[in-house]
Amino acid sequence: TNENKNSKKNYQKFLGMIGSLSNLFSDSQIPLLYYRGHENTFCNAFNAENLSRGDLSADAKKYSTGIGLKTFLAQNNKTWQKIAEFNAAKPLLEGLTTKKFVEKISNLRNDRMNLTEKAHNLNNSIYHCVVREIGKYKIYEESMDRIDTKNLNDIEDKGGSYVFNDDKH
User: Fold this and answer.
1) How far is the CA of 163 from the CAs of 58, 102, 140, in angstroms?
2) pLDDT for residue 142 is more than 80
3) Quick one: CA dihedral 44, 48, 50, 52, positive or negative?
4) Residue 109 has what pLDDT?
């Protein structure tokens, strides 16, 4: 919402061009959006610094805002999405109870956000999301909040994924 009209139009044009190529790779009516293409398109359109090659919580930086770029299918607007991977931390997580696992992952994510913001001099972070539906992309943004580790509840192990609330999200 803070960007100028030209940048927004360029972004829409670039996304439209990418979406128009989808039928070369898929028979689906839902346009594809390869994550690397999305990262580069966003950064080019909005003159943002591309941070996507680092193991960070932000994929781009504009002024003092970190931006996590996400793309996913709408799936009846009830989809759950991955916010981070911690493959290197696997030894730290083995043998933990579900609650302890979620606590550890939450702390690791918060630490990664703190590191990203400190390393790139960021004051805040947001998610910029592209939701893919039949024949279109929907774009929205929301704050990228730290997980409130003191208020973890409704924790569920979904067989490789964990779902929980923290009284914010």
Assistant:
1) 22, 9, 22
2) yes
3) negative
4) 93
